[in-house]
Amino acid sequence: DFNAGAKNEAHMGSADLLFSLNTLSHYRGNPKTNIYALFGYSLVSTRVKKWQNDPGQGFGFHTDYFPTSGLITTYGDATVNNRHAWGLLHAYDLGVGMAWKLNEKWNIGIEEKIVKPIIGNDFLDAHQEGNGNDSWSYSVFRINMNLGTKSGMRTEPLWWINPNNYVYNEVNVPKHMKIPPPVLPDADGDGVTDQFDLEPNTPAGAAVDSHGRTLDTDGDGVPDYKDKEKLTPQSCFPVNADGVGTCPEPACCKELRDAIKNLVIAPVKPACGISSLPSVTFRAGSAKLSKDAMSILTGAAGQLASNPNCNVKVVGYVANASSKQQQQLSWDRVNAVIKYLVEKAGVQESRIIFSYDNTGDSNTVDLQPTTDSGPNTVPAPHPQFRTTK
User: To the nearest 5 percent, what fractions of the chain are helix, strand and coil?
Assistant: First the structure.
């Protein structure tokens, strides 16, 4: 049976345009998965072998069935039955695929691709139907490597980069945009801009409402900044130029007022607005700050800068109170934290309290917010065991 079977041998070279379908996003960062479509041109070298069921010639794929439609040229040994001859033809290809990013250098993917001759060919399967619709279709599993070195030559394909990230990063932390701060005129300095101020000449320091008008809490016609009796009852109207009504002052109120004048009120110490500060962890036996510890201390310094009423107590611990080495190591770690806060993070020494040799986790130094004050340095207990200078 001459039509028992056939096989097609082909070598292809393709130049494709790849269209990434999920790179652009308004709500996430760079993608970890790439879904894409592709379209392009392929140059195909092909030949078709048919099954030879001839006892004289032997059984197997021996006889070439030469595809002639749409060929650019032929090459090879075109002898009897075009045996060993190849045809070269133009084709277009299209496909879809999905890739998963493993790291900046490696990714894996699957892809389905169809290659079809530009001029219809009906002989690629050694069977003529007359419609010229023969084509190749294949699925592949891909392992991809981005070429280059870490020094800057390696560039990830753009489908792993969300183009909106540049815009979002620039809006979050501008590096190229130079936007001047808006200046809204407020001639009287009452906090209400001139375009909304219904009283543009309010005296300095006078309390105003949302429209820039001086407040008159009791409605007696005397603004609060002049009113010596801000809550005059209406039954005591009219009032004098100081906003004081015509009602006589009750005896109890006069006594209370006199008592208040003679009362000495102790100043209230401002409260600290920081509820807690982070801790710093050291490696066993070391007093050197890690990069993570430096980052934590920089953040703590920012909190202290925003809360000028707060001081910080730097507390070190020991596991064995009788060990001179542990006492000195506790001192070294507290000293390293204070030195970074003062010299690198800009915290004033007067706001720091030095505390070491406390019972607790010996590898931890705590930062405790406080309004108390204390020594910001103490002598090293056992300098001969110091781990740092």
Answer: 20, 30, 50
Question: What distance in Å separates the CA atoms of residue 18 and residue 159, rounded to the nearest whole number?
Answer: 9
Place of tokens 């002639």: 68
Give the separation between CA 217 and CA 207, rounded to whole angstroms.
10
Give the model confidence (pLDDT) of 270-327 as tens digits: 888 888 899 999 998 899 999 999 999 999 999 999 999 999 999 999 988 788 899 9
Q: Which of 363, 195, 215, 223 is nearest to 293 (CA)?
A: 363
Cα–Cα dist 277/366, whole Å: 8
Question: Cα–Cα–Cα angle for 317, 323, 327, nearest 5°?
Answer: 40
In the predicted model, residues of the chain with pLDDT beneath 70 are 1-4, 51-69, 76-84, 150-155, 264-266, 388-389
The residues near 189 (Cβ < 8 Å, ≥ 6 apart) are 204
Kindly state the helix (H) or strand (E) to which residue 261 belongs, with its residue range.
Answer: helix 251-262
Distance CA 85, CA 367 (A): 83
DSSP code of residue 28: S
Query: What does the longest C-alpha to C-alpha distance in the chain come to?
Result: 139
Task: State the Cα–Cα distance between residues 256 and 243, nearest whole angstrom.
Answer: 20
Half-sphere exposure of 301 (CA within 13 A, CB side): 19
Rounded CA-CA distance 97/120 in Å is: 26
